[in-house]
Amino acid sequence: MHFRDGFLWGAATASYQIEGAVNEDGRAPSIWDTFSHTPGKVLHGDTGDIACGHYHRLEEDLDLMADLGLQAYRFSVAWPRIQPDGSGAVNQRGLDFYRRLVDGLRERSIEPMLTLYHWDLPQALEDTGGWTNRETSERFADYAGIVYEALSASVGFWITLNEPWVAAWLGHGYGLHAPGHRESGKALAATHHLLLGHGLAMRAMRETGRDNQLGVTMNLHPALPGRDRDADREAARCVDGQANRLYLDPVFRGSYPEDLISFYENRGVNPPPVRDGDLETISIPVDFLGVNYYFRHTVRDAPDQEPSQEPFSDLAVRGIVPHAAEKTAMGWPVDPEGLTQMLVRIKEEYGDPPIYVTENGRAVHDYVDPEGGVDDEERISYLDAHFRAAHAAMERGVDLRGYMVWSLLDNFEWAEGYSKRFGLVYVDYPTGKRIPKASAGWYAGVIRDNGLET
Ligand code: FCB
To answer: Which of 103, 186, 238, 375 is the most exposed place for a label (fewest CB within 10 A)?
Structure first.
């Protein structure tokens, strides 16, 4: 089973999840430093203070990528390393780190794919309202311009935001992520300002006239009714509205999904604070869409549900995991079919954009065996099935151009701390030692062959 020539195989990470060195070279705190240091927010009180120590092990990690044969590496830039206060003065030492990273990738013929925002907002901006404040969108565009100016000659792929749904809803609607707010109205405001920030950043980068690929990454999940009834079908449509259409529609069609907005308005929740021209800015054409795919949502109507920290509870909906499903260590169902389905839907309903899978992978209860290896069979069969699902979408005409496995390294899995391992490479946290898992060797073979055995 072959992928097309030039298909880009890679792996992904994010700054706060791997770098550590949170107080070094002028970096200031982000909302994730504050949140992880707040008792009760992250499992076991874990923080990103040290993480994988990637900031200090850059050369070693670059060599690991080369050993895997990666063709691309998706990473994110920590805004509080570049502008510690979220605005104004640039911290040159922060830029220098990413310059070394990008040069190291180029020396190894690995294509850099840079994400500007993977959730580590400078705390100083949160102190003035964060993403609920419209000015943050403008600060984001300034920051994008700074990083673009410094690195656009050596980085071909630029992603403005990672998963605006997660930043808006887990961060502002359900309180499970930083900054920990719990109000649907704040989540809608954050959604709008994140998307506006995306559009303003797109404009700032385009205006330089430099020819790079610019896009945005969304986590997309098909939504299925839990039971064969109209109420559950309606619940699934509502979840689809919040999880998928609330992001796809403004970027690709220049409008918000009316059904979802009126659902909230009917419950007294303010709609996204749109001003004239915003939707034109948000829908500036992207060169590609980044898709992060993990699973499908299966949902039931739950009319008596009170809004809580449970995602979608404010939609009077409850998510379930089908009993029969194989589950990952995150408790997420293994569901490759949903990837084909989502990719085909984007082609059919959103104008057939070029697509990169910018994240996909699974958590496994990995351990080092007495021989010193990590035999993650489950990850191999998961990736194998998802690569085939992606291939099936390509056979149906989807313009899929590359695939980034989440993740290169085990890392700080947000509210789950270090308890969940997603890496192709095992990290022994007390020592920082890296051990490529069985999946790393297997993936290197897939990359070499540009395909899978049938
Ligand atoms: C995604 C995030 C990524 C990682 C994976 C498991 O939502 O973008 O940082 O945590 O999930």
So the answer is: 103
- pLDDT score for 172: 98
Instruction: Map residue 5 onto helix, strand or coil.
Output: coil
Q: From the alpha carbon of 413, which atom of ligand 1 is closest?
A: 10
Tell me, yes or no, whether 3 lies in a domain: no
pLDDT value of residue 454: 81
Which residue in 112, 114, 82 sits closest to 97, CA to CA? 82
Give the CATH number of the domain where residue 394 resides.
Answer: 3.20.20.80
292 lines ligand 1 (CB under 6 A): yes
Does the beta carbon of 387 sit less than 6 angstroms from any atom of ligand 1?
Answer: no
Number of domains in the chain: 1
329 CA distance to ligand 1 middle (Å): 14
Place of tokens 């993977």: 118
CB contact at 8 A, 336 and 383? no
**Residue 177 counted as domain residue:** yes
- Stated pTM of the model: 0.98
Using a 6 Å cutoff on CB, does residue 165 contact ligand 1? no
Q: Does the residue 1 lie in any domain?
A: no
